[in-house]
């Protein structure tokens, strides 16, 4: 699971709503897999990220800061969580990550519907 | 996402594949895709995280209208305003196949995809799924000669393992398949798919389906199964027209066919059974229900029966025993309480590990209507029919606050 993916995930345990984001990540096994650097892509993704703590003054001109973009590229796309857990910050419910795959299934009792 | 066949069609987008089925997701992961296991009805995503979503051959597996709406609404929720959603579902109206009703069970025979991942007769080609490379995508019976072993279409040029796959591979009819079928397994592969194509499932309306599922739930062994029945009627051809493969043109049907790799010798014999054919057409297997089901190979279907082509020579009379029935065809006429004792060997089909998959096939306009009346957050951009699928592209409306 890439960290870019993690930024999209939110707990859907019944009653939790927006307080289900972000999931607390505990990684027990991580792999770095090289991914081709695409500065435009990274630059476009950054504003799409849902950042819980947003700096009051965003860095101007980050799109052209290659070093910054490379760092974001590495963090978002090259870090791969192979084993670990994702925890709902509100309910404490744990979702496993195995072989790089998060399993977000809930039982019927736990879900919204 | 299934095994991820569409996840890499566009190298310009970053994709995240989702499926309810963990083993399928594992396969997609092995192919290098970013994937996860989750529930379309409760997507574990924050609102407005995605620019585009595709749902190919998914929502027709949801068994109620409410669930289908919920699936679409969930996808709409996680789309950014202006983001687009494309949905493909099986159409009830098919060229080469007849669905009696909208709610159907379609057999999926696990025995037909028995090859482990490690086997491959064709080194150098990337695996598509947990099946050997010699597994070919589904080829419908050739409409020219109606021979189930003679197929239209060819290797699916949409295979993501080779994005620029040879479009010349899209061909027609027998000549191609005999080439593919040169290796013994290729022949059996295509037969296996034909075997599957025989089944256009018996239709079940939702309430009787529910009752039937309730009834079947406790049944664990084949002896128990012998008391309940599944009716299937052969389809004339598959509904797929692979003359002009296009991306997503067969939607999820392609996935069905991928898993139909090989047929066992048993099934092979069964297919070559004109004796059986006569039996099926002439007699009612014991205890066949009368009301409207009649002879499930009945007169309307005889010409659709692949065996009519007379291409199949020797045979065993075992096929009739493979036919079983679900005692629910028409809620008005049917008596879901009826169970029919089946002939001994009808457990054959279960021995081979047959499963059924539920489909709600859509009528023309139904998908459009569903979005229009129940998913107001989406604006429909286009809709149409693509090789036996109803498809729609819709856009998330800008929020109005």
UniProtKB/TrEMBL annotation, chain A:
Domain of life: Eukaryota
SUPFAM superfamilies, A to Z: Trm112p-like
GO cellular component terms attached to this protein's record: nucleoplasm; perinuclear region of cytoplasm
Record CDD domains: Trm112-like
First-listed, main subcellular location of the protein, grouped into a coarse class: cytoplasm
Presence of keyword Cytoplasm: yes
Xref: Pfam families: Trm112p (PF03966)
Annotated compartments: Cytoplasm, Perinuclear region; Nucleus, Nucleoplasm
Repressor keyword on record: no
Similarity comment text for this entry: Belongs to the TRM112 family.
Official protein name in the record: Multifunctional methyltransferase subunit TRM112-like protein
UniProt organism field: Balaenoptera physalus
Lineage per the UniProt record: Eukaryota, Metazoa, Chordata, Craniata, Vertebrata
TrEMBL record, chain B:
GO MF: S-adenosylmethionine-dependent methyltransferase activity; tRNA (5-carboxymethyluridine(34)-5-O)-methyltransferase activity; tRNA binding
InterPro entries given in the database record: AlkB_tRNA_MeTrf/Diox, Methyltransf_11, SAM-dependent_MTases_sf
Annotated stretches, region: Disordered: 116-137
Family annotation (Pfam families): Methyltransf_11
GO CC, alphabetical: cytoplasm; nucleus
Keyword NADP applies: no
Alphabetized UniProt keyword annotations: Methyltransferase, S-adenosyl-L-methionine, Transferase
Domain Methyltransferase type: 1-87
GO biological process, alphabetically ordered: tRNA methylation; tRNA wobble uridine modification
PANTHER family: ALKYLATED DNA REPAIR PROTEIN ALKB HOMOLOG 8, TRNA METHYLTRANSFERASE 9B-RELATED
Record protein name field: Methyltransferase type 11 domain-containing protein
Native organism: Balaenoptera physalus (Fin whale)
């Amino acid at each position: 699971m890439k960290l870019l993916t993690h930024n999209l995930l939110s707990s859907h345990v019944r009653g939790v709503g927006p307080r289900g984001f972000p999931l607390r990540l505990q990684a027990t096994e991580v792999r770095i897999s090289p991914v081709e650097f695409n500065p435009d892509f990274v630059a476009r993704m950054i504003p799409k990220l849902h950042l819980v703590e947003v700096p009051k003054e965003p860095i101007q001109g980050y799109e052209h800061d290659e070093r910054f973009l490379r760092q974001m590229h590495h963090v978002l796309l090259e870090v791969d969580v192979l084993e670990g857990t994702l925890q709902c910050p509100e309910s404490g419910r744990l979702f496993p990550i195995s072989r790089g795959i998060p399993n977000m299934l809930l039982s019927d009792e736990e879900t919204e519907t | 996402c299934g095994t991820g066949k569409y996840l890499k069609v566009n190298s310009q987008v970053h994709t995240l594949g989702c499926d309810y089925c963990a083993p399928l997701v594992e396969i997609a992961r092995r192919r290098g895709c970013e994937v996860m296991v989750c529930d379309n009805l409760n997507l574990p995503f924050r609102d407005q995280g995605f620019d585009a979503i595709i749902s190919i051959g998914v929502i027709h597996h949801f068994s109620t209208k409410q669930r289908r709406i919920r699936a679409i609404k969930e996808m709409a929720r996680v789309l950014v305003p202006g983001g687009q959603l494309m949905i493909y579902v099986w159409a009830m109206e098919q060229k080469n196949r007849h669905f009696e009703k909208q709610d159907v069970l379609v057999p999926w025979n696990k025995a037909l995809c028995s090859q482990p991942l490690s086997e491959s007769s064709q080194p150098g080609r990337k695996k598509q799924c947990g099946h050997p490379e010699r597994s070919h995508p589904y080829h419908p019976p050739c409409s020219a000669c109606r021979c189930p072993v003679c197929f239209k279409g060819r290797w699916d040029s949409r295979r993501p393992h080779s994005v620029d796959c040879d479009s010349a591979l899209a061909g027609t009819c027998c000549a191609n398949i005999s080439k593919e079928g040169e290796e013994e397994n290729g022949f059996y592969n295509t037969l296996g798919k034909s075997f599957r194509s025989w089944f256009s499932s018996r239709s079940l309306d939702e309430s009787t389906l529910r009752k039937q599922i309730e009834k079947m739930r406790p049944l664990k062994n084949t002896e128990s199964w012998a008391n309940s029945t599944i009716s299937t009627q052969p389809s004339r051809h598959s509904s797929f027209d692979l003359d002009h493969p296009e991306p997503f043109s067969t939607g999820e049907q392609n996935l069905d066919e991928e898993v139909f790799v090989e047929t066992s010798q048993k099934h092979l014999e069964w297919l070559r059974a004109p004796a059986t054919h006569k039996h099926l057409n002439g007699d009612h297997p014991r205890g066949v229900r009368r009301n409207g089901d009649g002879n499930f190979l009945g007169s309307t279907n005889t010409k659709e029966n692949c065996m009519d082509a007379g291409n199949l020579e020797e045979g065993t009379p075992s096929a009739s025993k493979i036919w079983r029935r679900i005692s629910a065809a028409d809620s008005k006429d049917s008596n879901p309480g009826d169970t029919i004792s089946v002939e001994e060997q009808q457990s054959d089909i279960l021995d081979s590990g047959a499963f059924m998959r539920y489909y709600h096939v859509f009528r023309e306009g139904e998908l459009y209507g569903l979005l229009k009346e129940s998913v107001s957050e989406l604006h429909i951009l286009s809709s149409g029919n693509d090789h036996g699928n109803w498809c729609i592209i819709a856009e998330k409306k800008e929020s109005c606050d």
